[in-house]
Write a structure and sequence with these properties.
With 367 residues, the chain is an alpha/beta fold. It contains twelve helices and 13 strands. The strands form three sheets. A seven-stranded mixed beta sheet has the order 1-9-8-5-4-2-3, with helices on both faces. The protein has a three-stranded antiparallel beta sheet with strand order 7-6-11, with no helix packed on it. Helix 1 (13-25) packs antiparallel against helix 7 (231-242) and helix 2 (32-45) runs parallel beside helix 7 (231-242). The longest helix has 19 residues, at 244-262. Bound molecules: pyridoxal-5'-phosphate.
Length: 367
């Protein structure tokens, strides 16, 4: 029987030899690779600076700290996301204030933001979900009007564009992630991008135990963390970055095959929509199925050797969010409806057209 995973990293000889050559030098941390990775990444996104960190979650934590967000502050964000984008607000003692999402793009709905702004609101944490940018023009306008900082969670959307401008360039800082299911991987790893030298220096220092550039190794100026990315991961990141455009073009091709197939089944399968002016970089290919028990569909697909996932649960309905903030079912109806009906199908570089056809046939046959 076929065995099709939901995601799979694309690792070539070049990746392997890059990692092995770091091992051969013996310099496994704080070497030239992580600096090179930072510079190349900043150039690729189009920001002045980038800071490599040990995960996307670590990057989000530092972005919150560097923005000066703390106890008593509120941060507006999306409930339809991976939990780390809200948890990072809790890490610094602030309160996530959710705003429901757009039913087509699943990104935060700018029309609903202003109603949630209070005297305590300090920032908007914009999540670009699944490989597509949020609607940034109105968000930037609202942030200016209310003097709020913008921090982007771009962990799922590397290289995605909004009206010709890449995600990661809109906020005071932005965070990317390189877990093996993302568009590019370093194993575990992440990156913060910024155009501010001050934010850059702060993030660099906080990721390295609160050290500053020009001081002794055992001098610590702030409460810092060890969120450093090691050299093997940085070497992998560099070789992955060199083929990122290729990898994204292959992801687009796979998404196109799915779209073509599902075109004739619009009444039972809702396919992803791309907002005008956006380019999509396909972290996942998520469809919504109408009138059928989604969890049952996932089980049926497993029996056919196809792995799929209920992406994503709405964050406010996790137990500790419900307990802490009193959220109930119905608080964010659009996010919740998407959570109930969505299935992420396999999508990775190297997935064959015949596999996509097999997946689509199995799904449609059941429906
Ligand atoms: C993957 C992801 C993260 C966190 O990345 P890790 O590297 O796994 O810590 C944060 N936010 C979103 C939206 C993500 O998809």
């Amino acid at each position: 029987m076929k065995k099709i995973p939901i995601s799979k990293p694309y690792i070539t000889r070049e990746d392997i030899s890059g990692v092995v050559s770091v091992l051969e030098t013996g310099q496994l941390s704080l070497g030239p690779k992580h600096t090179e990775f930072e510079r190349f990444f900043a150039k690729k996104i189009g920001t002045k600076f980038a800071v490599a960190v040990s995960s996307g979650t670590a990057g989000l934590h530092l972005a919150m700290l560097a923005a000066g967000i703390g106890p008593g502050d509120e941060v507006v964000t999306s409930p339809f996301s991976f939990i780390a984008s809200a948890n990072c607000i809790l890490y610094v003692g602030a309160k996530p204030v959710f705003v429901d999402v757009d039913p087509e793009t699943f990104n935060i709905d700018p029309k609903k933001i202003e109603a949630k702004i209070t005297k305590r609101t300090k920032a908007i944490l914009v999540v670009h979900i699944f490989g597509q940018a949020a609607d940034m023009n109105p968000i930037v306008k609202i942030a200016k009007k209310h003097k709020l900082k913008i921090i982007e969670d771009a962990c799922e959307s590397v290289m995605a564009e909004y009206q010709g401008k890449k995600v990661g360039t809109f906020g005071q800082s932005a965070v990317f992630a390189f877990y093996p299911n993302k568009q590019m991987t370093t194993g575990e790893g992440g990156m913060i991008t910024t155009n501010s030298e001050e934010i850059y220096k702060m993030c660099k220092s906080l990721a390295n135990q609160g050290r500053s550039d020009n001081i002794q190794w055992l001098d610590h100026q702030y409460l810092g963390y060890n969120y450093r990315l090691d050299e093997m991961s940085a070497a992998l990141g560099l070789s992955q970055l060199r083929k990122l455009d290729f990898m994204i073009s292959r992801r687009r091709q796979v998404a196109g095959w799915y779209n073509d197939f599902f075109k004739n089944y619009g009444d039972i399968v809702t396919t992803p929509k791309i907002a005008p002016g956006n380019t999509h970089t396909w972290f996942v290919y998520m469809v919504r199925i109408i009138g059928v028990n989604r969890d049952k569909v996932i089980k049926i697909l497993v029996k056919k050797g196809i792995s799929s996932k209920p992406y994503l649960p709405s964050i406010h309905l996790f137990d500790f969010y419900k307990k802490r903030f009193g959220y109930k079912v119905g608080a964010y109806p659009i996010s919740e409806k998407i959570s109930r009906t969505s299935i992420a199908l396999p999508l990775y570089v190297g997935l064959k057209k015949e596999d996509v056809n097999y997946i689509c046939h199995q799904l449609i046959n059941y429906l």
